[in-house]
């Protein structure tokens, strides 16, 4: 954990839990969330936390800025509201106006962080979700610390996302369902089971083994084929075994020498070997 916020988070946690018990409205919940950003996450309230930030003709609950650059938006809901992903739809539109890639959705107890992409419309992925009322302090602090001012400055949040994206089902599935990997699996199966299976059947079997959520993220099964220039190269184990036939010119010289029948007694009367 790059920034240790356990002590400060533990100190403010009772006030957040109390807000949920009292079912505070959105405005009062927002006040407590701002205190989290100030006392736990290290931001300067007067200059780095803006309320009701306007982006063009729209408004967002909170915006967090460093050196006058907005790093992420915060959508606040009342303490007693159960958070839904659809609650960030308004923040999505705000974020797309300024190409802001991070949105936090929180009611003080639950903190959901979303990463946004704008290449083909607006797409969002939940990067993490924290429930301070049920999760351990260490785990909650480690995730929430990614929003700390120093973590943002050091690029820790971006590094976290790169790792998260690399280990996602979509990324792992892209690697697994490649022709090279499926052929390697086929060789292992052939070695252990003695059966030669089509890589398409292996791919389908692997796809069926995954959870419903993983299959939805990976999408329909599609095997990534090699380029045509590579397809012609067969693997050693796939090549038929044929006897090697050497041409006459390839036969070792000592094999080409004609057989000479020597007399049983190769010596002459003088006891010398004939020339």
Structural class: alpha+beta
CATH class of the largest domain: Alpha Beta
**Spatial ordering of strands, largest sheet:** 1-2-3-4-5-6
- CATH level-3 fold name of the largest domain: tt1808, chain A
Provide the gyration radius in Å.
35 Å
Report the sheet with the most strands, covering strand number, pairing sense and barrel closure.
6 strands, mixed
* Helical percentage: 40-55%
Alpha-carbon distance between the two ends: 91 Å
The count of strands amounts to 6
What is the total domain count? 2
> How much strand?
15-25%
Secondary-structure arrangement, i.e. CATH architecture of the largest domain: Alpha-Beta Complex
The helix/strand order is HHHEEEHEEEHHHHHHHHH
Low-confidence stretches: 238-251, 253-257, 266-275
